[in-house]
Amino acid sequence: MTVTPSDPAQSGSLRQAGAPVALRHVVKTFDQYRAIDDLSLDIEPGEFITFLGPSGSGKSTTLMMIAGFEQPTTGDILIGGSVVTHTPAYRRNIGMVFQNYALFPHLTVAENIGFPLKQRGVAKAEIRQHVQRMLDLIQLSGYEARFPQQLSGGQQQRVAIARAIVFNPPVLLMDEPLSALDKQLREDLQLEIKRLHGRLGITFIYVTHDQKEALVMSDRVAVMNEGRIAQIGSPKALYDTPSNRFVASFVGEANLFEATLVGKGTDGLVVLKVGDVELRAPAPGSSDPKCLCMIRPEKINVRAMPAVDGRPVNSMSATVRETVFMGEMIRYVVEIAAGPRLTVKQQHRAETPILAPSDVAAIEWAIADTRLV
Protein backbone atom coordinates (compact mmCIF):
# COMPACT_ATOMS: atom_id res chain seq x y z
CA MET A 1 0.00 0.00 0.00
CA THR A 2 1.26 3.47 -0.84
CA VAL A 3 1.37 5.87 2.11
CA THR A 4 1.25 9.54 1.17
CA PRO A 5 1.99 12.22 3.78
CA SER A 6 -0.30 15.20 3.87
CA ASP A 7 0.99 18.00 1.67
CA PRO A 8 0.05 21.51 2.81
CA ALA A 9 1.75 22.89 -0.27
CA GLN A 10 -1.11 21.54 -2.38
CA SER A 11 -3.50 23.92 -0.64
CA GLY A 12 -1.20 26.86 -1.34
CA SER A 13 0.32 27.05 2.12
CA LEU A 14 3.24 25.39 3.88
CA ARG A 15 1.66 25.94 7.30
CA GLN A 16 0.27 23.00 9.20
CA ALA A 17 -0.92 22.25 12.69
CA GLY A 18 1.71 21.57 15.32
CA ALA A 19 1.00 19.14 18.13
CA PRO A 20 1.01 19.91 21.86
CA VAL A 21 3.65 18.15 23.94
CA ALA A 22 3.35 17.53 27.67
CA LEU A 23 5.62 16.09 30.35
CA ARG A 24 4.01 14.87 33.56
CA HIS A 25 6.20 14.41 36.64
CA VAL A 26 9.05 12.98 34.58
CA VAL A 27 12.04 11.56 36.45
CA LYS A 28 15.12 10.09 34.78
CA THR A 29 17.88 8.41 36.75
CA PHE A 30 21.17 6.86 35.61
CA ASP A 31 22.27 4.49 38.38
CA GLN A 32 22.22 6.78 41.44
CA TYR A 33 22.30 10.03 39.46
CA ARG A 34 18.99 11.85 38.98
CA ALA A 35 19.34 13.64 35.64
CA ILE A 36 15.72 14.85 35.50
CA ASP A 37 13.93 15.62 38.75
CA ASP A 38 10.11 15.62 38.63
CA LEU A 39 9.74 17.70 35.47
CA SER A 40 6.27 18.82 34.36
CA LEU A 41 5.75 21.06 31.34
CA ASP A 42 3.10 21.92 28.74
CA ILE A 43 4.25 22.95 25.25
CA GLU A 44 1.62 24.61 23.09
CA PRO A 45 0.91 23.45 19.52
CA GLY A 46 2.99 25.45 17.06
CA GLU A 47 5.19 26.89 19.80
CA PHE A 48 8.97 27.39 19.48
CA ILE A 49 10.35 26.45 22.89
CA THR A 50 14.01 26.13 23.80
CA PHE A 51 15.63 24.18 26.62
CA LEU A 52 18.59 26.29 27.73
CA GLY A 53 21.17 25.38 30.33
CA PRO A 54 24.77 24.41 31.07
CA SER A 55 26.22 20.97 30.42
CA GLY A 56 24.61 18.40 32.70
CA SER A 57 21.47 20.46 33.32
CA GLY A 58 19.20 17.82 31.74
CA LYS A 59 18.15 19.62 28.56
CA SER A 60 19.39 17.00 26.06
CA THR A 61 18.12 14.15 28.23
CA THR A 62 14.67 15.77 28.18
CA LEU A 63 14.79 16.07 24.39
CA MET A 64 15.89 12.44 24.01
CA MET A 65 12.95 11.30 26.13
CA ILE A 66 10.50 13.30 23.99
CA ALA A 67 12.12 11.73 20.91
CA GLY A 68 11.83 8.22 22.38
CA PHE A 69 15.58 7.47 22.48
CA GLU A 70 15.50 7.49 26.31
CA GLN A 71 12.76 6.18 28.59
CA PRO A 72 11.66 8.06 31.73
CA THR A 73 12.27 6.23 34.98
CA THR A 74 8.86 7.47 36.10
CA GLY A 75 6.30 9.90 34.68
CA ASP A 76 4.61 10.29 31.31
CA ILE A 77 5.18 12.03 27.98
CA LEU A 78 2.26 13.02 25.77
CA ILE A 79 2.34 14.13 22.12
CA GLY A 80 -0.86 15.37 20.53
CA GLY A 81 -2.76 14.38 23.67
CA SER A 82 -1.70 10.71 23.47
CA VAL A 83 0.64 9.05 25.95
CA VAL A 84 3.82 7.97 24.12
CA THR A 85 6.01 7.19 27.14
CA HIS A 86 6.74 3.65 25.95
CA THR A 87 6.16 4.17 22.23
CA PRO A 88 9.31 3.48 20.15
CA ALA A 89 10.96 6.50 18.56
CA TYR A 90 10.19 5.35 15.00
CA ARG A 91 6.45 5.28 15.77
CA ARG A 92 6.20 8.81 17.26
CA ASN A 93 6.12 10.49 13.83
CA ILE A 94 8.30 13.43 14.90
CA GLY A 95 11.27 15.02 13.15
CA MET A 96 14.75 15.14 14.66
CA VAL A 97 17.83 17.18 13.77
CA PHE A 98 21.00 16.02 15.51
CA GLN A 99 24.07 18.00 16.48
CA ASN A 100 26.18 16.33 13.77
CA TYR A 101 23.30 16.37 11.20
CA ALA A 102 23.66 12.56 10.67
CA LEU A 103 23.36 12.80 6.88
CA PHE A 104 24.05 9.63 4.90
CA PRO A 105 27.40 10.28 3.13
CA HIS A 106 26.65 7.79 0.31
CA LEU A 107 23.30 9.41 -0.58
CA THR A 108 22.78 12.60 -2.55
CA VAL A 109 21.01 15.64 -1.14
CA ALA A 110 17.76 14.55 -2.83
CA GLU A 111 18.13 10.99 -1.55
CA ASN A 112 18.86 12.19 1.98
CA ILE A 113 15.80 14.42 2.03
CA GLY A 114 13.58 11.76 0.49
CA PHE A 115 14.79 8.94 2.75
CA PRO A 116 11.96 9.25 5.36
CA LEU A 117 9.38 9.14 2.56
CA LYS A 118 11.00 6.08 0.98
CA GLN A 119 10.87 4.34 4.38
CA ARG A 120 7.14 5.15 4.53
CA GLY A 121 6.46 3.59 1.14
CA VAL A 122 5.68 6.80 -0.73
CA ALA A 123 5.70 6.49 -4.52
CA LYS A 124 8.83 7.72 -6.33
CA ALA A 125 7.01 10.45 -8.26
CA GLU A 126 5.54 11.83 -5.05
CA ILE A 127 8.91 11.67 -3.33
CA ARG A 128 10.38 13.83 -6.10
CA GLN A 129 7.60 16.38 -5.61
CA HIS A 130 8.09 16.56 -1.86
CA VAL A 131 11.89 16.75 -2.18
CA GLN A 132 11.63 19.62 -4.65
CA ARG A 133 9.29 21.43 -2.30
CA MET A 134 11.86 21.06 0.48
CA LEU A 135 14.74 22.19 -1.75
CA ASP A 136 12.78 25.33 -2.62
CA LEU A 137 11.99 25.90 1.05
CA ILE A 138 15.65 25.67 2.19
CA GLN A 139 16.90 27.52 -0.92
CA LEU A 140 19.03 24.64 -2.22
CA SER A 141 17.36 23.99 -5.58
CA GLY A 142 20.02 22.72 -7.99
CA TYR A 143 21.95 20.94 -5.23
CA GLU A 144 19.92 17.72 -5.34
CA ALA A 145 22.68 15.63 -7.03
CA ARG A 146 25.44 16.69 -4.64
CA PHE A 147 26.70 14.60 -1.75
CA PRO A 148 26.92 15.89 1.86
CA GLN A 149 30.72 16.22 1.71
CA GLN A 150 30.31 18.64 -1.19
CA LEU A 151 28.23 21.02 0.94
CA SER A 152 29.18 23.68 3.47
CA GLY A 153 28.25 23.20 7.13
CA GLY A 154 25.32 25.57 6.77
CA GLN A 155 24.03 23.76 3.70
CA GLN A 156 24.30 20.40 5.46
CA GLN A 157 22.33 21.81 8.36
CA ARG A 158 19.54 22.92 6.04
CA VAL A 159 19.44 19.50 4.36
CA ALA A 160 19.16 17.87 7.80
CA ILE A 161 16.20 20.11 8.63
CA ALA A 162 14.55 19.38 5.27
CA ARG A 163 14.91 15.64 5.85
CA ALA A 164 13.35 16.03 9.30
CA ILE A 165 10.26 17.92 8.06
CA VAL A 166 9.66 16.41 4.60
CA PHE A 167 7.05 13.97 5.98
CA ASN A 168 5.18 16.83 7.71
CA PRO A 169 5.73 15.88 11.36
CA PRO A 170 3.68 17.79 13.94
CA VAL A 171 6.78 18.22 16.13
CA LEU A 172 10.43 18.95 15.23
CA LEU A 173 13.20 18.35 17.77
CA MET A 174 16.64 19.96 17.37
CA ASP A 175 19.64 19.11 19.53
CA GLU A 176 22.21 21.95 19.29
CA PRO A 177 22.21 21.83 15.46
CA LEU A 178 24.30 25.02 15.07
CA SER A 179 27.05 24.33 17.60
CA ALA A 180 29.67 23.31 14.99
CA LEU A 181 29.24 26.42 12.82
CA ASP A 182 31.23 29.65 12.87
CA LYS A 183 29.73 32.72 14.56
CA GLN A 184 28.44 34.60 11.50
CA LEU A 185 26.90 31.53 9.85
CA ARG A 186 25.39 30.50 13.15
CA GLU A 187 23.71 33.89 13.57
CA ASP A 188 22.40 33.82 9.98
CA LEU A 189 20.93 30.34 10.42
CA GLN A 190 19.28 31.26 13.73
CA LEU A 191 17.15 33.76 11.84
CA GLU A 192 16.58 31.27 9.01
CA ILE A 193 15.26 28.64 11.43
CA LYS A 194 13.05 31.23 13.11
CA ARG A 195 11.57 32.22 9.74
CA LEU A 196 11.11 28.55 8.83
CA HIS A 197 9.14 27.99 12.02
CA GLY A 198 6.92 30.93 11.14
CA ARG A 199 6.20 29.45 7.71
CA LEU A 200 5.58 25.86 8.86
CA GLY A 201 3.59 26.39 12.05
CA ILE A 202 4.70 23.10 13.61
CA THR A 203 5.94 22.69 17.17
CA PHE A 204 9.70 23.30 17.47
CA ILE A 205 11.57 22.01 20.53
CA TYR A 206 15.17 23.18 20.55
CA VAL A 207 18.15 22.51 22.82
CA THR A 208 21.12 24.83 23.24
CA HIS A 209 23.59 26.06 25.81
CA ASP A 210 23.93 29.36 23.91
CA GLN A 211 21.84 32.00 25.68
CA LYS A 212 21.78 34.44 22.75
CA GLU A 213 20.60 31.69 20.43
CA ALA A 214 17.73 30.90 22.79
CA LEU A 215 16.70 34.55 23.14
CA VAL A 216 16.77 35.20 19.38
CA MET A 217 14.78 32.18 18.26
CA SER A 218 12.24 31.21 20.89
CA ASP A 219 8.67 31.99 21.87
CA ARG A 220 9.50 30.65 25.33
CA VAL A 221 12.72 29.52 26.99
CA ALA A 222 12.95 26.92 29.75
CA VAL A 223 16.16 27.52 31.70
CA MET A 224 17.30 24.22 33.19
CA ASN A 225 19.61 23.56 36.11
CA GLU A 226 20.28 20.26 37.88
CA GLY A 227 17.41 18.46 36.18
CA ARG A 228 14.78 21.08 36.96
CA ILE A 229 13.34 24.13 35.22
CA ALA A 230 14.78 27.12 37.06
CA GLN A 231 12.47 29.50 35.18
CA ILE A 232 10.35 29.45 32.04
CA GLY A 233 9.05 32.44 30.13
CA SER A 234 9.45 34.67 27.12
CA PRO A 235 12.99 35.76 26.23
CA LYS A 236 12.20 39.30 27.40
CA ALA A 237 10.78 38.12 30.73
CA LEU A 238 13.81 35.92 31.45
CA TYR A 239 16.25 38.69 30.58
CA ASP A 240 14.46 41.58 32.31
CA THR A 241 12.95 39.80 35.32
CA PRO A 242 14.95 36.69 36.28
CA SER A 243 13.42 34.95 39.27
CA ASN A 244 16.63 33.75 40.91
CA ARG A 245 20.39 34.18 40.95
CA PHE A 246 21.09 31.28 38.59
CA VAL A 247 18.86 32.63 35.82
CA ALA A 248 20.15 36.19 36.32
CA SER A 249 23.75 35.09 35.88
CA PHE A 250 23.19 32.47 33.16
CA VAL A 251 20.88 34.43 30.85
CA GLY A 252 22.96 37.41 29.76
CA GLU A 253 25.63 39.24 31.68
CA ALA A 254 24.64 40.73 35.02
CA ASN A 255 26.05 42.80 37.86
CA LEU A 256 24.96 41.15 41.10
CA PHE A 257 25.65 42.57 44.55
CA GLU A 258 24.24 42.31 48.04
CA ALA A 259 21.96 45.10 49.26
CA THR A 260 19.84 45.82 52.32
CA LEU A 261 16.20 46.84 52.06
CA VAL A 262 15.72 49.83 54.39
CA GLY A 263 12.36 51.29 53.45
CA LYS A 264 9.31 51.38 51.21
CA GLY A 265 7.81 54.34 49.39
CA THR A 266 4.23 55.11 48.44
CA ASP A 267 5.16 54.87 44.76
CA GLY A 268 5.62 51.10 44.80
CA LEU A 269 9.40 51.41 45.09
CA VAL A 270 11.72 50.25 47.85
CA VAL A 271 14.83 51.93 49.20
CA LEU A 272 18.05 49.88 49.30
CA LYS A 273 21.44 50.50 50.75
CA VAL A 274 24.69 49.33 49.21
CA GLY A 275 27.26 50.46 51.73
CA ASP A 276 26.42 54.12 52.31
CA VAL A 277 24.76 54.55 48.92
CA GLU A 278 20.96 54.59 48.66
CA LEU A 279 19.25 53.08 45.61
CA ARG A 280 15.62 52.64 44.63
CA ALA A 281 14.05 49.64 42.94
CA PRO A 282 10.66 48.11 42.13
CA ALA A 283 9.35 46.24 45.17
CA PRO A 284 10.44 42.58 45.31
CA GLY A 285 8.10 39.68 45.99
CA SER A 286 10.01 38.87 49.19
CA SER A 287 10.16 41.03 52.32
CA ASP A 288 13.61 39.73 53.32
CA PRO A 289 15.77 42.79 54.18
CA LYS A 290 18.84 41.10 52.71
CA CYS A 291 18.50 40.91 48.95
CA LEU A 292 20.49 40.52 45.77
CA CYS A 293 20.48 43.47 43.39
CA MET A 294 20.91 42.96 39.63
CA ILE A 295 21.73 45.52 36.94
CA ARG A 296 22.52 44.62 33.34
CA PRO A 297 25.76 46.21 32.07
CA GLU A 298 24.12 47.84 29.06
CA LYS A 299 21.53 49.55 31.29
CA ILE A 300 24.19 51.70 32.96
CA ASN A 301 25.33 55.05 31.60
CA VAL A 302 28.79 56.37 32.37
CA ARG A 303 29.24 60.12 32.44
CA ALA A 304 32.29 62.26 32.99
CA MET A 305 30.09 64.56 35.11
CA PRO A 306 26.78 63.81 36.86
CA ALA A 307 23.69 64.80 34.90
CA VAL A 308 21.21 66.88 36.86
CA ASP A 309 17.96 66.70 34.92
CA GLY A 310 15.49 65.23 37.40
CA ARG A 311 15.11 61.86 35.68
CA PRO A 312 14.06 58.86 37.85
CA VAL A 313 17.47 57.23 38.01
CA ASN A 314 19.86 55.69 40.49
CA SER A 315 23.14 57.57 40.40
CA MET A 316 26.48 57.31 42.17
CA SER A 317 30.12 58.15 41.64
CA ALA A 318 32.57 55.45 40.57
CA THR A 319 36.20 55.03 39.64
CA VAL A 320 37.04 53.50 36.28
CA ARG A 321 39.34 50.50 36.78
CA GLU A 322 39.35 49.01 33.28
CA THR A 323 38.50 50.26 29.80
CA VAL A 324 38.21 47.91 26.81
CA PHE A 325 37.35 49.12 23.31
CA MET A 326 35.20 46.47 21.57
CA GLY A 327 34.23 48.21 18.36
CA GLU A 328 30.50 48.79 18.69
CA MET A 329 30.79 49.36 22.44
CA ILE A 330 33.11 50.33 25.27
CA ARG A 331 33.29 47.88 28.15
CA TYR A 332 34.17 49.37 31.53
CA VAL A 333 34.84 47.88 34.92
CA VAL A 334 34.09 50.52 37.54
CA GLU A 335 34.39 50.47 41.30
CA ILE A 336 31.88 52.19 43.56
CA ALA A 337 32.59 53.46 47.04
CA ALA A 338 30.52 50.70 48.61
CA GLY A 339 33.00 48.16 47.32
CA PRO A 340 31.49 46.14 44.43
CA ARG A 341 32.90 46.37 40.94
CA LEU A 342 30.37 46.71 38.16
CA THR A 343 30.63 45.91 34.48
CA VAL A 344 29.25 48.59 32.16
CA LYS A 345 28.64 48.40 28.40
CA GLN A 346 28.30 51.72 26.61
CA GLN A 347 27.55 52.19 22.92
CA HIS A 348 30.46 53.66 20.99
CA ARG A 349 29.31 56.97 19.54
CA ALA A 350 31.22 60.00 18.29
CA GLU A 351 29.73 62.26 21.00
CA THR A 352 30.58 59.87 23.85
CA PRO A 353 34.08 60.32 25.31
CA ILE A 354 36.06 57.22 26.27
CA LEU A 355 37.09 57.30 29.92
CA ALA A 356 40.48 56.03 31.06
CA PRO A 357 41.37 53.87 34.08
CA SER A 358 41.45 55.94 37.32
CA ASP A 359 38.99 58.52 35.93
CA VAL A 360 36.21 59.35 38.37
CA ALA A 361 32.81 59.23 36.72
CA ALA A 362 29.12 59.24 37.51
CA ILE A 363 27.17 56.10 36.71
CA GLU A 364 23.39 56.00 36.48
CA TRP A 365 20.60 53.73 35.42
CA ALA A 366 16.80 53.78 35.41
CA ILE A 367 15.15 52.74 38.64
CA ALA A 368 12.98 50.31 36.65
CA ASP A 369 16.16 48.52 35.52
CA THR A 370 17.15 47.77 39.12
CA ARG A 371 16.03 44.20 39.80
CA LEU A 372 15.98 42.30 43.06
CA VAL A 373 16.39 38.53 42.68
- Write down the domain tally: 2
User: If strands are numbered along the chain, what order do they take across the biggest sheet?
Assistant: 6-7-8-3-9-10
CATH topology of the largest domain: Rossmann fold
Please give the CATH architecture of the largest domain.
3-Layer(aba) Sandwich
Order of helices and strands: EEEHEEEHHHEHEHEEHHEEEEEEEEEE
* Whole-angstrom Rg: 25 Å
Question: How many E-type strands?
Answer: 20
Gap from first CA to last CA: 60 Å
- In DSSP terms, counting alpha (H) and pi (I) runs of 4 or more, how many helices? 8
Tell me about the biggest sheet?
Answer: 6 strands, mixed
Mean pLDDT: 90
CATH superfamily placement of the largest domain = P-loop containing nucleotide triphosphate hydrolases
Can you describe this structure?
A hairpin with a 3-residue loop joins strand 16 and strand 17 (329-336). The chain is 23% helix and 34% strand. Helix 2 (109-119) packs across helix 3, helix 2 runs parallel beside helix 4 (153-165) and helix 3 (124-137) crosses helix 4 (153-165). The chain has 2 domains: 8-94 and 169-245, P-loop containing nucleotide triphosphate hydrolases (Rossmann fold, 3-Layer(aba) Sandwich), CATH 3.40.50.300; 253-372, OB fold (Dihydrolipoamide Acetyltransferase, E2P), CATH 2.40.50.100. Strands 6-7-8-3-9-10 form a 6-stranded mixed sheet, sandwiched between helices. The protein has a 5-stranded antiparallel sheet with strand order 13-12-11-14-20. Residues 1-13 have low confidence and may be disordered. It has helices spanning 59-67, 109-119, 124-137, 153-165, 183-200, 211-217, 235-240, 245-250; strands at residues 21-30, 33-43, 48-52, 74-79, 82-83, 95-97, 171-175, 203-208, 220-225, 228-233, 255-264, 269-274, 277-282, 290-295, 301-303, 313-325, 329-336, 341-347, 360-366, 371-372. The chain has 373 residues and is α+β, with helices and mostly antiparallel strands.
